[in-house]
DNA sequence: GTATACTTATATCAAGTTGATATATCGAGT
DNA sequence: ACTCGATATATCAACTTGATATAAGTATAC
């Protein structure tokens, strides 16, 4: 997960580990965070796997500049092209980088994602109805108000994501400028 | 985290580890999940800390029934009474159990949580405005459409949470039936 | 009636993540 | 010269995940 985020950030150009951390905090920070404890081991991993290249700057003590290698770029674009899931906000992360994905694939992914969300929505609405019916039979329905409200919130959140994704589907097509077609 | 969820589930009555897992999946499963790899070690921990009591059922092989001890109940209610944060959906988890919290404390927590959310909302709207202004100056704003949309989604999500919490604040007061005041 | 397959039930492990803490440099101001 | 805050990397214990292993109980079919 963090590996792909790092590669995605490095698409913009070479950066130090500290810069990457700051970039993450300032851009996707409100829904995804990377700690140093995960960032530095990840940079080491990616370097060993030849997906990025780290070189000493000579200037400040240990400062290294990390550059994306072509293999890393491929790996990132492959990750980006995978289907969207809501697990751990991965959909937000991928869509944040979606301007790098070719328009056709993007259209397909958004299409099936919104279908998936509609499915979940129907399911949750069905659950809601059952729960509502069961609740009516209780002597004191108010005693479970908060417990039940969480389901309502889940529904509203789902509706919010779905609306957002549907808006994205209406976006005019715009081929990525930096030539990022996987093919 | 999982410790407090387990304690909260056990408020309903004694259960096996497997039952707890199933209960979690079926109730808060759509936003919080517990794996066996975290559940069983947690049960062991809680047992050692004398917060729950596990006893062999004698029936099936290793099956144990876990019962909440008074110390565990105290620990759970103390956790519940802590301020709400959105870190890792903790607000949903706590509010799911909020019928156990005394009405006065609950009111205070919801009050400050909604204030906190409004603050975040103002901040994010300010960021949005700055970003919008910077975007206008670009030659091809469409090339960043997805990247920018994530911010919009963040805003809508925040609005959704805030609306939900404000609805909760309108709920008629209902003292918990099972006598759960911390005092 | 017994083989087949699913559910219940607990346990373990490698790999990864978090949050805290440690250490040191650099630049800006006083 | 001194101090403060930002830059920069590293490490660690505790915890979580996802996968895998094991085995007993239960239902279904043939």
Helix/strand-derived category of chain A reads: mainly alpha
Mean model confidence by pLDDT of chain A: 90
Kindly report the greatest chain-chain contact and the residue count on each side: A-B, 35 and 35 residues
Shape descriptor of chain A reads elongated
- Number of alpha- plus pi-helical segments of chain A: 7
What separation lies between the terminal Cα atoms of chain A? 23 Å
Describe this structure in words.
Two copies of one chain form a homodimer. Chain A is about 60% helix and about 5% strand. With about 180 residues, chain A is mostly helical. Chain A folds into two domains: about 1-80, Arc Repressor Mutant, subunit A (Orthogonal Bundle); about 90-170. Chain A has a two-stranded antiparallel sheet with strand order 1-2. In chain A, helix 1 (about 1-10) packs across helix 4 (about 70-80). The model of chain A has no long low-confidence stretch (mean pLDDT about 90). Chain A binds a DNA duplex (30 and 30 nucleotides) through helix 2 and helix 3.
């Amino acid at each position: 997960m963090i590996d792909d985020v790092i590669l995605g950030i490095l698409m913009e150009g070479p950066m130090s580990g500290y810069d990457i951390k700051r970039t993450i905090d300032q851009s996707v920070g409100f829904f995804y965070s990377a700690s140093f404890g995960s960032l530095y081991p990840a940079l080491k991993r990616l370097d060993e796997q030849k997906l990025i290249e780290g070189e000493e700057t000579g200037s400040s003590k240990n400062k290294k500049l990390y550059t994306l290698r072509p293999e890393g770029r491929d790996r990132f674009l492959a990750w980006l092209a995978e289907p969207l899931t809501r697990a751990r906000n991965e959909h937000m992360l991928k869509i944040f980088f979606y301007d790098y994905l070719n328009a056709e694939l993007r259209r397909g992914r958004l299409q099936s994602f919104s279908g998936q969300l509609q499915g979940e929505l129907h399911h949750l609405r069905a659950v809601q109805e059952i729960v509502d019916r069961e609740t009516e039979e209780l002597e004191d329905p108010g005693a479970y108000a908060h417990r039940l409200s969480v389901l309502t919130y889940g529904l509203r959140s789902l509706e919010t994501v779905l609306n957002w994704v549907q808006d994205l589907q209406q976006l005019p097509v715009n081929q990525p400028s930096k030539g990022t077609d996987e093919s």
